[in-house]
Amino acid sequence: MEKILCFKKGWSEMRNIFCMMAALLFAVGCTSSRPGPYVIPPPRNAPPKPLVLPPASLQLTQASGKATNGMVRPQSMPSARLSTPATVQTQLQTVAAKPAATPATIKPSAPLAMPVEIKSTRAASVYLIKPGDQVVVSLRGIPQEQQIEDQVDEIGKINLPFINEVTAAGKSSSELERVIRQAYIDQQIYKNIMVNVILPSQSYYVRGEVRQPGRFPLASGVTLVQALAAAGGYTEFANAKKIQLLRGNKAEYYDARSFEQHPEKDVAIEAGDVIVVHRSVF
User: Is the same domain home to 144 and 185?
Assistant: First the structure.
């Protein structure tokens, strides 16, 4: 009997514990699955809502963490303007109304300057023989060397042995030398000959204490120092610091040693000049 009473008492306690656990579980389940506000579903046959475009003035501006019309725009996204169809059509009409760009006109460049022929000053100053000039022709390298002095006649010719007349007018001294030499060879008078033509009117003279005094043909640009070198240079008795230059009725003295050290100060020689190198006293 006692066992039966104890069993009933224990069963009653277990039933109470089970009821309390069931009540607790029900309370927790109701709290976690509480429904939200009730949304009325649209009718089944209702037409779809039209798509509403944003207004033309809507712009996406650069903002960091700020919302534009409810949307958060990243910082790296470039700003843009959304255009409505009407705005796009207006822009197309504006582009179509603009005239096509006129191609740029290329102006012709200035014509290139033609090269100017520069004549040599040395060539322009070469003296050409003319009627009335005195000519000295030296024939060398032949059995009997000769020196002929003649005057260019009115028709521009001179007379030479064996070949008679030769045209000299209009030629330089070097050109006349080649003409005379070729005439002797072509006429088989000499197989080889050396010809030297000197124009006394275009010559200068060096005398005094030089190794080869005499008359020398004047070339373009000859200076006092060069003229002395053409005469073989000084002798051991020459006074190089006192060189006399006779030009017409004038006489000038120059220090040739200083000209050797400063060539820019050297004196130019002219036709008919006479250079005199005096003997040194000591």
Answer: yes
Are 263 and 211 in a shared domain?
A: yes
Q: Are residues 130 and 191 in the same domain?
A: yes
- pLDDT tens profile 73-105: 544 444 445 455 555 456 556 645 555 555 555
**Residue 1, token pair as written in the block:** 């009997």
**pLDDT (tens digit per residue) in 200-226:** 888 899 999 999 999 898 877 899 999
Rounded to two decimals, the pTM is 0.42
What is the token pair recorded at 281?
A: 């006293």
Residue 182 backbone dihedrals phi, psi, to 5 degrees:
-65, -35
The answer to the question of residue 29 being in a domain is: no
Exposed, middle or buried, 136 (CB in 10 Å: 0-12/13-18/19+)?
Answer: middle
Regions of the chain with pLDDT less than 70: 1-8, 28-125, 282
CA dihedral for 194, 200, 203, 204, sign (positive or negative): positive
C-alpha of 80 from chain center: 50
Distance from C-alpha of 278 to C-alpha of 238, rounded to nearest angstrom: 6
The residue range of the domain holding 212 is 203-279
The count of domains in the chain is 2
Sheet holding 194-198, edge to edge: 146-151, 134-140, 194-198
